[in-house]
């Protein structure tokens, strides 16, 4: 006989509305900021505790959203809480919204494997509210500044879909999409052995050129994290170099929370894949998926045929 809590199965078609939250915060300020964001998202704080009491709280039966404020907390306390929260979230289909330091990004993204987990780093209040509201109803978080009650797909979701469609078409050798004419030169993108890989120096040069724009113009004018990450991962694939989540966030040249949102979206679009580090469960690597790699190779080949630079 045991008192261990065993969750009841959840019907797969059950619609959940998480209007209450369990808040786990490393300090008073973290709990205050989380409570403010939850209130704006119309989610009630059911319980607010520290990391030392998290294990017992997570073990109790509940249907609450889990909000973790790990900023400033030591990894030794954060890691077991993330592991347990991830397990509970998977068992109960609970959403997790975790805010972490930049140095904890790899830890959080490697341990929070639930599809309902959202990882933030140095978020604005608006980004917190958007993530919580999206987690509550299982929605895709809108861009900061948009109406948080709108359920329409955000602009960046449309853009990612467009990129995914274009890369997929190029990887198949189909250049006849809207606004693109097939040059008719017999290229077969589906045969990767027939495509000469770019030199990684060529890709890195394009990345450096893109970064130089920030020296003369406001960087926000040219924010294009999806393409910046695709370029970085393509260069890294050519160099046979692994890329951590935190490194890819830096390559995106946007705030960490925005970069993490894009990584999740590109992963869902089938262009990225996440690989666990077999020697360290606290770290995960991001790479181009076979579809993403084939698309990048085909795109660079198409540019060469047209005599166009990579930008």
TrEMBL record:
A single Gene Ontology MF term assigned here is: DNA binding
Keyword terms, alphabetized = DNA-binding
Instruction: State the residue spans of region: Disordered.
Output: 174-198
- Superkingdom field: Bacteria
Looking up InterPro entries in the UniProt record yields: HTH_MarR-typ, WH-like_DNA-bd_sf, WH_DNA-bd_sf
Q: Where is the HTH marR-type domain?
A: 239-292
List where Basic and acidic residues composition bias occurs.
182-191
Q: What is this protein called?
A: Winged helix DNA-binding protein
Instruction: Tell me the organism's taxonomic lineage.
Output: Bacteria, Pseudomonadati, Pseudomonadota, Alphaproteobacteria, Sphingomonadales
